UniProtKB/TrEMBL annotation:
Residues 9-194 form the DSBA-like thioredoxin domain. The keyword Metal-binding does not apply. This is 2-hydroxychromene-2-carboxylate isomerase. GO terms for molecular function: isomerase activity. It comes from Pyxidicoccus parkwayensis. SUPFAM superfamilies: Thioredoxin-like. Keywords: Isomerase. It comes from the Bacteria.
Length: 218
């Protein structure tokens, strides 16, 4: 029986998700897995949990771009700020959700990330998204049309709800056999898990879940 796919929950808004995506094909190949790209709406995750994104906190906004630039340098991949940030990722998420085949969807994800964070024209306009779709070798007119259907819109919404139910609170969130790994800095821990070397295997997680709180912020 083939091992379960690695579900990579993504939103093009996040440079961390972009950086993690550049590593996912090699990670999956090393462990005999395939990657299922899952487009989710980061704003939906944040709203459901009463949280805000890093770019919505002015000091953190500047730090994130410095931090991700350093990670990108270490990874040897480009990182160029998009035309605006935050931006509306919905069209890009919906065309991604409209692609049924995972391999083709992965090509599209790479093309859209290149347009968003690799020096392209972003992913907010139909023209920019169309160019990325064509770069992935897919039919732009049919995918742009599919993105306007209720079925595809509902698919992104359902993906987001399922990610929340699985414990996701941001992107990138990677689900391996139901175990969640968050952020580009969790990729090493993901590989430990896939090798059967997760150091948490003997930890009493229930104790952490039930640990009482004796202080709170108003």
């Amino acid at each position: 029986m083939a091992p379960a796919p690695l579900r990579f929950c993504l939103d093009y808004l996040s440079p961390y998700a972009y950086l993690a995506w550049t590593r996912m094909p090699a990670i999956a190949a090393r462990h005999g897995r395939v990657v299922e790209p899952v487009p989710v709406l980061l704003a939906g995750l944040l709203n459901a949990l009463g949280n805000v994104g890093p770019a919505e906190i002015p000091p953190k906004r500047v730090y994130v771009f410095k931090h991700t630039s350093r990670i990108a340098h270490g990874f040897g991949v480009p990182l160029v700020p998009p035309p605006s940030h935050p931006f509306n990722p919905l069209l890009a998420l919906r065309v991604t959700a409209a692609v049924e085949d995972w391999e083709a969807r992965s090509r599209l994800v790479s093309a859209l990330y290149a347009s968003a964070w690799g020096g392209g024209k972003g992913v907010e306009t139909p023209e920019a998204v169309s160019s990325a779709i064509q770069a992935a070798g897919l039919d732009a007119s049919s995918l742009l049309a599919a993105a306007q259907t209720q079925e595809v819109k509902d698919r992104v919404r359902r993906n987001t709800e399922e990610a929340l139910a699985a414990g996701a609170f941001g992107v990138p969130s990677i689900l391996a056999d139901g175990e969640l790994f968050f952020g580009v800095d969790s990729l090493e821990h993901l590989e430990q898990y896939l090798r059967g070397e997760d150091p948490l295997s003997n930890v009493d997680l229930e104790r952490w879940r039930d640990l009482p709180s004796t202080a709170s912020r108003r």
